[in-house]
Amino acid sequence: MPFAVHVLGLAVFAQGTSEFMLSGLLSGIAGDLHVSLGAAGLLTSAFAIGMVVGAPLTALAGRTWPRRRALLFFLGVFVAVHVVGALTSSYGVLLATRVVAALANAGFWAVALVTALAMVGPHQRARATAVVVGGVTVACVVGVPAGAALGELWGWRAAFWAVALVSVPAAIAFLVAVPGGRPDDAPQVSARSELRALARPRLLSTLLVMALVQGATFCTFSYLEPLVTRVTGFGAGWVPVVLALFGVGSFAGVTLAGRLADARPDAVIGLGMTALAAGWAALALTAGHPVAALALVLLQGALAFGTGTTLITRVFRLAPDAPTMAGSFATAAFNVGAAAGPWLGGLALGAGFGFRAPVWVSALLMCLALVGAGALSASSPTGVVRRPGRGGPTE
Question: Measuring CA to CA, which residue among 376, 74, 345, 353 is closest to residue 207?
């Protein structure tokens, strides 16, 4: 695997830490900036919305740029707004920096995914995708707990400084490892043609399935704390351990999927989604048993990110003539799920269905994803997508 692919994973680690670290910093931000916890929580929502909206917009803006220039630009903006966020005493400015950081993150993701795939052979695409997405899982295991620890020791601003500093080595490495010229496979068609390619029903259905899978994942992940403390019976000190356990499973899942999905992508997706639906239902039923709960948290983390990584690879396979925009739509679908899942879980909690309710919502979302995947398979049994103007299939 090229060194540059691992560098992309490092940058994604920093950005993934930024996306999720606020869960451990909200009280400090609210107290320092004299706003409510609800207002502080909007910083997370602003980031998710910025990712959804920003992914296609930034991809359109930078689709013809040399990839090294695009990666450095988006990462530079990301670092700059974290410096501003660490220095500001204004809630409004901090909220604006979260939106701009999300836009930069979305643009970086879109370019990073297509860059990683362009640097490997056709039989290593799932593995390259796993390395990039693996940065998010490492953020869950290391970055988010470390950000919370920094916030506890030196205040929430220290976590923002840390994210900016971790991004700098990646930017330097891009100058060495990523080619600077316009790549041979850079878009040769208009933006309208790329967008038209993304309107294929099979691709749109895959994006919908992606959003449902991620919605199920983040619905339960967002409410693991009340589940493990009020249902499983663990003390508050166990919460970081359980979150890290989910992250360890996630890292294992993307690593294993990267090795299996290049050869059997449909099997990985089908078996992974079925196991996820059964696993969320099993967790809802057995959450009161500590050993079962811990085992299922680890397993579900592996299944969720392994399946999600393989779905991202499928999006690129279905849109070979729109690589940059395909990456942006995959990023948007991921974040639609990341925003909708916690919202639906919150509705279930607010309706008084108990602390297991978000897990049942995850199981329901996975059932809907399975229905969508079944309809997808029925509409196109072979899964073959042909490149325009060529006789052979892409896969």
Answer: 376
Asked if 137 and 328 count as a contact pair (C-beta separation under 8 A), the reply is no
Give the Cβ contact number of residue 184 at 10 Å: 8
6 backbone φψ class: left, alpha, beta (φ>0; ψ -120 to 50):
alpha
Give the Cα separation of 24 and 185 in Å (integer).
Answer: 42
| 144-167 per-position pLDDT tens digit | 677 777 877 888 899 899 889 988
Count other C-beta atoms under 10 Å from residue 34's C-beta: 9
Asked whether residue 244 carries a pLDDT value surpassing 50, the answer given is yes
183 contacts 67 by C-beta, under 8 angstroms: yes
Asked if 246 and 20 count as a contact pair (C-beta separation under 8 A), the reply is no
- Non-local (6+) Cβ contacts of 380 within 8 A are 202
Q: What residue type is assigned to position 193 of the chain? A: S
For residue 379, what are its two tokens?
Answer: 């509409």
CB–CB of 330/113 below 8 Å?
Answer: yes
Q: Give the residue among 313, 109, 295, 324 at the shortest CA–CA distance from 198.
A: 324
Read off the pTM.
Answer: 0.77
For residue 381, with 0-12 CB atoms within 10 Å meaning exposed, 13-18 middle and 19 or more buried, which class applies? exposed
